[in-house]
Amino acid sequence: MDLGLSGKRVLVTGGSKGIGLACAESFAEAGCDIVLASRDAATLAAAADGLRARAQVNVQTFAADLSTDEGRERLHEAHPDPDILVNNAGAIPGGKLADIPMARWRAAWDLKLLGYVHMCQLYLPGMEARKSGVICNIIGMAGRTPRAGYIAGCTANAALIAFTSALGGAAVAQGVRVFGINPAATRTDRMMTLARTNAQQQFGDPGRWAETLTGLPFGRAIEPREIADLAAFLASPRGGYVNGTVVDVDGGAMFR
């Protein structure tokens, strides 16, 4: 299927691995030029080399600490006018209220919750001025199904769901779409980290992480490309009426 994205410029935060890198692969295969942004320059360089080997598109990288205003502002200064922004950078720890010091709450929210807000604040005005653009926020199912064992993440995700809907409802007047995707357990390094935290909470042994991933719909976790391909479709003209909503991808687990 031709998504009508050839030649578009796509900026992906947290783009060096996991869902972010998968998103970059999907957009690159659709003919988009890519900017990958994350903290580690070496990991970014390896990811960019892999993309260039798969698709004949321009791939650039930008290393910055996106948990800081300064890092996000430098990224915007270097790459001010993407057609599509994919907000994906985030690393909120698992744990109950008593497990997470306030400094860790702030650090995690600075990267994901406030990071997404600031990225939209930086990039939306340019899109509105051009009367064109798409913002995709990769959020997470914990915002729909909150639980005490992931309290910092579910609280941030719930806020980002509301933020995405409110922003999309207003941005459409200027020709810009804003939507989100809520992945459930996805086969990434991040999933393993959270599984080990959950195993420590449930069994007192992080080595029993596999026991926390049983009973998944279809007997498996989500593949990163399943989220990425959805993001590319929804960001394309083929998904051109999708705005202000957040799509849940959990295999129906929420209703089981």
List keywords for this structure.
single chain, 256 residues, alpha/beta, Rossmann fold, 2 domains, 8 helices, 44% helix, globular
Low-confidence stretches: none
Q: Which CATH C-level class of the largest domain is it?
A: Alpha Beta
* CATH fold type of the largest domain: Rossmann fold
Global shape? globular
Query: Order of strands side by side in the largest beta sheet?
Result: 3-2-1-4-5-6-7
Which percent range fits the helix content? 40-55%
Number of strands: 7
Global Rg? 18 Å
Number of helical segments with 4 or more residues: 8
- Structural class of the helix and strand makeup? alpha/beta
SSE order, one letter for each helix or strand:
EHEHEHEHHEHEHHE
What about the largest sheet? Answer: 7 strands, parallel
Mean pLDDT: 95
CATH architecture of the largest domain: 3-Layer(aba) Sandwich
Looking at this structure, what is the CATH superfamily of the largest domain?
Answer: NAD(P)-binding Rossmann-like Domain
How would you describe the overall organization of this protein?
- The protein is an alpha/beta fold and 256 residues long.
- It has two domains: 9-184 and 224-248, NAD(P)-binding Rossmann-like Domain (Rossmann fold, 3-Layer(aba) Sandwich); 190-221, no CATH class.
- Helix content is 44%, strand content 15%.
- The chain is built from eight helices and seven strands, in the order E-H-E-H-E-H-E-H-H-E-H-E-H-H-E.
- It has helices spanning 18-29, 41-54, 69-78, 102-111, 113-130, 151-171, 189-203, 224-235; strands at residues 9-13, 33-38, 59-63, 84-87, 133-138, 176-183, 246-249.
- Strands 3-2-1-4-5-6-7 form a seven-stranded parallel beta sheet, sandwiched between helices.
- Helix 1 (18-29) crosses helix 8, helix 4 runs parallel beside helix 5 and helix 5 packs parallel to helix 6.
- The longest helix is centred in the middle third of the chain and has 21 residues, at 151-171.
- The radius of gyration is 18 Å and the shape is globular.
- The model has no long low-confidence stretch (mean pLDDT 95).
